[in-house]
Design goal:
single chain; alpha/beta; Glucose Oxidase, domain 1; 7-stranded mixed sheet; 8 helices; 9 strands
Length: 224
């Protein structure tokens, strides 16, 4: 029996807000270079950002029936995350469904298939990350799971994990790790601010990154 389920455990609102101020790159580095989704998944517009709990759904390739049901049952702020077999030759989502998402307050869409109506999606400002842009239509035939764990972009994503995305890409943070990931991300940003200040004070990248010992150990000779 296939069930449509809600997210069993949603992350705390304050944990989502804490992560939302950091870039996916910072979060990925801060949590031990874990959680980055495939770089093939790109935003429709570089200005698009998202951060929220994953509302996961499986779709058959070239079939958006379960995506439409996910939109129907997702809650405000949820990020709909669609596993559709990394099938590029289908436009499973466009401006009509984006308007449905906006009307419900859904926080964004991540899909490993194609989308279309990209000009309208940019105008609407609804955050969409996809594997491709494709005009080919889809069917509505296959029943599948909603809010089971899925694999997308090379990462396992559990319902309620936090998805963060911007122009550079996407990262997943386990719900239970969110607070620590935010703390480590802030520490990383503080350290990087120190590096930038040191550069402005005239220090070299070798000095700031303490590369002298590393270079000597590798036998690098500098004749400049």
């Amino acid at each position: 029996m296939i069930h449509i389920k809600d997210i069993a455990q949603r992350p705390a609102k304050e944990d989502i807000e804490a992560l939302s101020v950091f870039s996916p790159a910072t979060i990925h580095e801060a949590q031990g270079r874990r959680g980055a989704l495939s770089s093939r998944l790109k935003p429709v517009d570089y200005r698009m950002k998202l951060c929220g709990p994953a509302f996961t759904v499986k779709c058959a390739p070239r079939d958006n029936l379960m995506l439409q049901l996910a939109i129907n049952y997702a809650k405000p702020g949820d990020i709909i995350v669609v596993s559709a077999g990394e099938y590029e030759e289908a436009g499973s989502f466009g401006d009509v469904l984006a308007n449905a998402c906006l009307a419900k307050g859904i926080g964004g869409l991540v899909t490993d298939t194609g989308v279309r109506d990209t000009l309208q999606l940019r105008d609407l400002g609804f955050p969409v990350f996809s594997l491709s842009v494709c005009i080919k239509g889809t069917v509505k035939e296959t029943i599948a799971a909603v809010n089971d764990s899925i694999v997308l972009g090379g990462e396992i994503i559990h319902p309620g994990d936090i998805i963060v995305g911007d122009a550079d890409g996407l990262v997943v943070v386990r719900r239970e790790d969110a607070r620590e990931a935010a703390r480590l991300s802030q520490a990383r940003e503080d350290a990087e601010a120190g590096f930038i200040a040191a550069y402005k004070d005239g220090k070299s990248v070798v000095e700031v990154s303490n590369l002298d010992a590393v270079l000597k150990a590798k036998g690098l000779l500098v004749d400049i």
